[in-house]
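Exercise 7b. C-alpha cells:
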C-alpha cells in the first residue's frame, strides 16, 4: 500500500509492513450505539518518516462540525511482540469514504478517541454535495484522487497547526509550499497560477476541474512552464518536456505543442469538453490512461512526421501499428474491428467507450490488458478472428488459453472479459478452469451465473460490482467450489466467498460449520437487514459487510461474531 507524501525528498513514500487483518471499525461517537459503518483494518510494524516542513503556514480557519457517523474509515493496528507471541494495538484511523449530506464538512481528527491520520485514495469520490472541507491537524497523507468528482467542492481548508499540509486560497499544498496536492474540482475560477516555489505537481492535482481553462505558471518557476494554459515540465530540469496536465475546462480541439516530448499518465483526465487532439511530431511517449474520461473526444490525430505514433481513422496506434494505444471515448459508431496489424492492446485502451456494443480482435493480437474495456457499459460482444493463437470468443465473451500474466495448463480455458453491457443469466462454458480477476467488472445487468465443474480459481473480487446478481450456481461435480442456495462457498474448507448482491430475502443464516467469511463477501447487499452467524465462524474481515448499512448480526454469546460486533460497533442480537 502506498500514499502520496508531502515530502519533497520522497514524493512517493510508501508505508512499511502493512498487512490486512480481520477486524472492522465502527464510526460511532462514544454516546451513540446501534449504527455501524464499514471499514477494513491494517497492521503496521513501523512508522513512516515525517515530511519536510517549513515556516509557511495556512491561514487561520474556523472548523465546521461534521457528524463522525458520516465518515467511513479503517483502523490501523501496530503489531507488538512479547516473547514468541504478538498482539495488536490500535494506533490510527484512516478515512475511506463519506456518506453524509454534504455542505461544509470537517474531517474528524479522532474517531472513538483514535487519531485520524490518512485520507485514502478516492475517499470522497463523486461526493458532489460537498462544498468545502476542513482537514484537521492530524492528517498526514491525502490519497490520489481523494476528492475526484466532488464537483461542488470550492475550497479545501487545512488547520493551521497541521505539520504536513496547508492550503493557499483553498488549494491543497505541502506544508513547505513546494508541492501542489489537489485543486478543488468545484472551484469556479477559470485560471490558476502556480507560484515560483512549486517544484512538484501531483499527477492528478487538476483532474476533473471543469471550471479551469488555464493553468498558468509564474515565469520565475524553475521546474514548470505553461504553453497556452497547459502545464508542461521544463526540459532543463526534467530531461524532457512532459505535458503534465491539460485543464479539464478546455473545449474543442487541442494541438499539443511541437516542443512536447511526452504526455504524462492522466494528463487529459476528465477533459470532457475536448472533441479532438492533435499529437505533434515531437511526442515520443504517452502514459497510460492519458485521455481517460474524455467522454466527448471523437478523434486523436497524429502529425505524419511523428516517428513513434500514428492514427488510423482517429484511433491512436504506435507507428508500426502493432499496439492500439487509445480508442477515443466519444467516437461514434457501435462496432469496431481492430486492424489486423495489431499484436497488443494497451490496458485501458477502450475505457469508458459508451457507444461501443461490439469489438473484433484480430488474429495477431496476443496481448490484451485486463482493464482494456473498463467502463464500456454498452459492450455486448467481444469477437476474435480465427485462428488467433492466444484468444478466442465463445458467444461474444473473451477467453484465452493463457492468463493475463501466466500460462495455464493445456486443456482448460481462462475467462478474460465478460462484456459489461450484457444482461440476464450466464453459464460459463465447461472447459473453463480459471476466471480473471476483473472478468465481470461493472456487469450490473448480470442476474445469474453458473460455474462449471473444472473451475479451480475464482477471485474474491469477481462479483463485487454485479449489483443485479441474484444467484451463483456451481456444478455439483466441481472439486473446489459449491453453492448453498445460490451463495458461493469453497468446497471443503468452509469459506463463504460471495453472497449475491440482489439475492431475494432480507435475512440470511450462514450454515453451521462455516469457518470464515471472505473479503467483501456481502458487498452492497442492501436487501439484507439481518445475518445469523454460527459459532463455527472464527474469521470475519473488516469489509465483509461493505454497504450493508441497515444490518443486524444475530449470533451466540461469546462467539467470534459476538466479539467482532463488540469491537466494531455493528448492531447485534444474541441467541
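Sequence design result:
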Amino acid at each position: 500500500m502506498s500514499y502520496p507524501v508531502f515530502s519533497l525528498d520522497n514524493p512517493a513514500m510508501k508505508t512499511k509492513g502493512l498487512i490486512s487483518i480481520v477486524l472492522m471499525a465502527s464510526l460511532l461517537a462514544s454516546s451513540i450505539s446501534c449504527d455501524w459503518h464499514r471499514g477494513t483494518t491494517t497492521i503496521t510494524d513501523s512508522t513512516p518518516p515525517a515530511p519536510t516542513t517549513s515556516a509557511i503556514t495556512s491561514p487561520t480557519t474556523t472548523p465546521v462540525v461534521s457528524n463522525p457517523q458520516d465518515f467511513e474509515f479503517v483502523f490501523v493496528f501496530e503489531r507488538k511482540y512479547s516473547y514468541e507471541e504478538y498482539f495488536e494495538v490500535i494506533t490510527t484511523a484512516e478515512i475511506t469514504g463519506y456518506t453524509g449530506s454534504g455542505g461544509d464538512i470537517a474531517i474528524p481528527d479522532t474517531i472513538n478517541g483514535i487519531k485520524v491520520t490518512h485520507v485514502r485514495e478516492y475517499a470522497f469520490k463523486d461526493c458532489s454535495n460537498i462544498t468545502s472541507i476542513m482537514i484537521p491537524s492530524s492528517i498526514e497523507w491525502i490519497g490520489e484522487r481523494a476528492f475526484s468528482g466532488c464537483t461542488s467542492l470550492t475550497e479545501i481548508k487545512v488547520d493551521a497547526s497541521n505539520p504536513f499540509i496547508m492550503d493557499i486560497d483553498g488549494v491543497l499544498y505541502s506544508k513547505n509550499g513546494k508541492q501542489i496536492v489537489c485543486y478543488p474540482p468545484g472551484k469556479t475560477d477559470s485560471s490558476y497560477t502556480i507560484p515560483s516555489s512549486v517544484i512538484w505537481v501531483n499527477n492528478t492535482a487538476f483532474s476533473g476541474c471543469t471550471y479551469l481553462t488555464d493553468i498558468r505558471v509564474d515565469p520565475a518557476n524553475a521546474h514548470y512552464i505553461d504553453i497556452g494554459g497547459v502545464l508542461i515540465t521544463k526540459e532543463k530540469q526534467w530531461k524532457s518536456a512532459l505535458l503534465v496536465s491539460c485543464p479539464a475546462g478546455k473545449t474543442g480541439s487541442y494541438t499539443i505543442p511541437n516542443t512536447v516530448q511526452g504526455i504524462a499518465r492522466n494528463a487529459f483526465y476528465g477533459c470532457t469538453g475536448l472533441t479532438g487532439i492533435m499529437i505533434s511530431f515531437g511526442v515520443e511517449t504517452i502514459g497510460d490512461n492519458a485521455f481517460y474520461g474524455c467522454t466527448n473526444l471523437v478523434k486523436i490525430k497524429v502529425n505524419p512526421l511523428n516517428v513513434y505514433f500514428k492514427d488510423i481513422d482517429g484511433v491512436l496506434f504506435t507507428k508500426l501499428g502493432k499496439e492500439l494505444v487509445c480508442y477515443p471515448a466519444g467516437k461514434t459508431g457501435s462496432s469496431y474491428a481492430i486492424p489486423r496489424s495489431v499484436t497488443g492492446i494497451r490496458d485501458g485502451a477502450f475505457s469508458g467507450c459508451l457507444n461501443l456494443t461490439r469489438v473484433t480482435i484480430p488474429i495477431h493480437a496476443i496481448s490484451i490488458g485486463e482493464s482494456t474495456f473498463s467502463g464500456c457499459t454498452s459492450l455486448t460482444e467481444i469477437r476474435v478472428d480465427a485462428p488467433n493463437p492466444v484468444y478466442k470468443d465463445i458467444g461474444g465473451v473473451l477467453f484465452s488459453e493463457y492468463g493475463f500474466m501466466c500460462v495455464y495448463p493445456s486443456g482448460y480455458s481462462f475467462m478474460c472479459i465478460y462484456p459489461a453491457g450484457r444482461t440476464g443469466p450466464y453459464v460459463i462454458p465447461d472447459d473453463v478452469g480459471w476466471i480473471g480477476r476483473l472478468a465481470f467488472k461493472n456487469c450490473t445487468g448480470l442476474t445469474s451465473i453458473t460455474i462449471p465443474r473444472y473451475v479451480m480459481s475464482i477471485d474474491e473480487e469477481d462479483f463485487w460490482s454485479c449489483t443485479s446478481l441474484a444467484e451463483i450456481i456451481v456444478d455439483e461435480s466441481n472439486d473446489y467450489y459449491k453453492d448453498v442456495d445460490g451463495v458461493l462457498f469453497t468446497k471443503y474448507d468452509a469459506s463463504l466467498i460471495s453472497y449475491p448482491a440482489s439475492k431475494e430475502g432480507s435475512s440470511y443464516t450462514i450454515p453451521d460449520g462455516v469457518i470464515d467469511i471472505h473479503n467483501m463477501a456481502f458487498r452492497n447487499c442492501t436487501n439484507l437487514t439481518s445475518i445469523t452467524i454460527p459459532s463455527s465462524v472464527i474469521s470475519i474481515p473488516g469489509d465483509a459487510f461493505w454497504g450493508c448499512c441497515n444490518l443486524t448480526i444475530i449470533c451466540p454469546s461469546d462467539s467470534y461474531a459476538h466479539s467482532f460486533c463488540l469491537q466494531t460497533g455493528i448492531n447485534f442480537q444474541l441467541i
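Instructor comment: The radius of gyration is 25 Å. DSSP finds two helices and 47 strands in the chain.
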